[in-house]
Amino acid sequence: MRRILFALSLFLSTNVFASPLWEDVNQQEQNKLARSSLPSYSARVLRLDEPALRQQLLSATANTASKNRLAKPAINKPLELPLPDGSMVQLIIEEYPLLSKALATKFPDIKAWKVHEAHGKNIYGRIDLTEVGFHAMLTLEDGDTIFIDPHKTSENNHLYDSFSKRKNIHLFQRHENKKEIFIKTPISLQRSINTQKKAATSSKDLITYRLALAATGEYVALKGGTKAAAFSAMMTTINRVNQIYERDLSVRLVFIDKTYDIIYTNPNTDPFTHGNAFSMLDENIANMDAVIGDNNYDIGHLFGGAGTGGLALLSGVCRANKISHKAGGITGSASPYGDSFNIDYVAHEMGHQLGATHTFNSETKNCSGNNREADTAVEPGSGSTIMSYAGICGKNNLQINSDAVFNAVSIAQINNYIRDNEGATCGKHESSGNTNPSIIATQNFTIPSNTPFVLTSTANDADGDQLNYTWDQIDANGTTVDVDIDTGDNPLFRSYLPSALNYRYFPHINTLFGELPIKGEKLALTDRELNFATTVRDNKGGIARADTKITTSGNPFTVISQYSSYLYQRNENIQVRWNVAGTNKPPVNCQTVDIKLLAKDGTTQDLLLNTVNDGSQNLNIPNNIKSVSHARIMVACRDNIFFAVSKGNIAIGTNKPPTTSINVTISNVSVKESSANKANFTITLSHASDQRTSIQYTTVNGTAKAGSDFLFDTGVLLIPAGKISETISIPILNDQLVEDNETFQLQLSHPSNNINLFDSSATATIIDDDKKIDTPADKQDIPSSKNDVKKAGGTMSSILIFLMLYLSLLKLRIQVYRSR
Fold first, then answer.
1. Which residue, of 145, 274, 397, 740, has the fewest CB within 10 Å?
2. Cβ(130)–Cβ(110) below 8 Å
């Protein structure tokens, strides 16, 4: 069995090993790799001294391991991992038991570790060492996830990729429509919004569930065809799932002793009816009880291949009865790789087994039918958290994949089941040794309608752990409408990944600076209530939650001065004016305001504090104001959470005029199929930038498919400083078939600098200009499309002669095309 080794730069004491273990691959070699690896993506490619690294890591682990597995042996000497930007991060690692004792003894070189940054930065994650190499999953301070994986080449050249999830989001798009059904139990485990917070804080106990994870022959084939390769992939998946489950739920999954007995290599002889989710679920339950035994596992799941989708019994963990069953969960995909599988599918389906229902509030595409759960439909549109349907709700999609985080409502549901109901009757419950953070309860507020606001949290951690924050709107049972419509009771604000910042602006800061609104960021236009849950995480399984109720009433509070851009200097006198909109009277009762300077990164500087809320104020710009070139005047109620900002950009203390947002537009194109044409998309800036602009792009299938109608392409477009447009050319393939016109899209994302995607996508229409070929005898139609063959009249002999001629011509053309 070939073992691909891994690389990790260990430090001993304060000295780095003399021989560097990570070496960046030069650009010339990367160019060759780019041509052989599809789809392309932005990554730092490195070559590793793998044997030395394996030996060093395993040796260091063995030397520091405690006889007591609960003592959490850690390697306290920092190790280095490469980040995509060219830097290295130093980490402390701590081995944890992902395998049962018997399984760990059988495979001593297969291990998993927790990691956190060595010098106090809020960076944490998981790494693992398996039969097929090394994998790392790191969460950065800004919420981005960094992956380090073996480079996907056919040769064992010890290459690894370090890449950002945020900058390669196209890699994480679902490759097939999600097929999912979760079967509810007749026992209601839901709690009202008002009582959820009682179940929202995780216990100090860590719950370890014994995981029986089976695999079909189809899944094993996708992973290389051997049990070792499949088990390695399964381990990496569960290591990633554990990162989220331990952080949000204080739950850990551990592979059982007999895992190898339920990994099947032959699709023809495994005990599963592949493609029939209901049959597979029943077969998995029966097979688990027969091979593993009912008392030898706590949660069971099955991995399948293409066409399986997802199916789960709600609240099945620990159960083995007619109401539900602990082995009632399956997940299958044609591409079981990365977070599009590990988070969107596996963490989601197992979330059902732990007691969580869906959180999206939409009825379009896959969100339609019985998939919506009214009691927990708290996320606008498709939603974005683990129990949402991000990417598969059509026009109501907020993003193309789920974020690796549970909504506060999901955490409450799961804790309700696993700590207060039948989910608490199995598994190993032991002290985590961690102290949960504490959060100061927030008050309720009344604010004007259609007015921005900011929520701020104050929290502490007795262990001194770095804290992260999320804010989830938790209004359920509302009207189901398209995203960004306020009906008075539906959720308006989306959830985001945990952030080290203890505040969040509503709407997003980019919207406040004049950029296009973000889906799922809608200010309330009606008089209504908005309920929010603030969740604080210490990244060690401890969480705390505080809820806030906001009541909106009346007209919007707005700044009516500084409508255009201004360049101010320190000590300059300026006037700020705003529309009070009755906010100085009940029910809002805001008597004084603070006037500040709001920067694009969300930080503020004080201009004048505690002035009367009367709509106008002259002020002198203080001498201590830091220079800024892209800011807004902010008028904020002093004892409330609402505020307003100027429309115009403000620069202070610089000779440069204030910067203004640059809009990006892209137009639809039409192209004829013949003559090896290209679809030329022109990307245009509203005005030139003084910096080079980068924009990520990727092609997306429509009725036209990559590989048969056009060539797939993805990458980064660079627009030089001073230039306003560039072109992306996508080659069109002539399939020689008479058919309807077809379309595909070019999607743009992640622009650099101060760039606003006014258009995030454009459509290319491929105009079919293949001519019909008539039979000389009776002019009968040839096949008119790839999916439609018309019946032809005339004698059978004339039809056969024509088809032979046509197929011969088509074969000749294909051979000529391939020879190019």
1. 740
2. yes
Whether 464 contacts 520, CB under 8 Å: no
Residues near 603 by Cβ (< 8 Å), separated by ≥ 6? none
Question: How far is it, in rounded angstroms, from Cα 654 to Cα 570?
Answer: 10
Report, in angstroms and rounded to the nearest whole number, the Rg of the chain calculated over CA atoms. 29
Query: For 279-337, how does the pLDDT look when each residue is reduced to its tens digit (9 = 90+)?
Result: 999 999 999 999 999 999 999 999 999 888 899 999 999 998 867 899 999 999 999 99
Give domain status of residue 37, yes or no: yes
CA distance 161 to 163: 6
DSSP 3-state of 346: helix
Report the distance separating Cα 308 and Cα 329, nearest Å: 12
CA proximity to 682, closest of 692, 667, 670, 694: 667
CB 433 within 8 A of CB 74: no
Q: What single-letter DSSP state applies at residue 202?
A: P
Assess whether 313 and 338 both reside in one domain.
Answer: yes
* Phi, psi for 767 (deg, rounded to 5): -85, 120
Whether 816 maps to a domain, the answer reads no
| CA–centroid distance for 247 within its chain | 16
Nearest CA to 393 out of 357, 369, 376, 374 is that of: 369
Tell me which residue range forms the domain holding 730.
662-767
pLDDT category, 799, cuts 50, 70, 90? Answer: very low
Q: Which two tokens stand for residue 381?
A: 């549109």
Q: 699: which strand partners?
A: 746
607 inside domain: yes
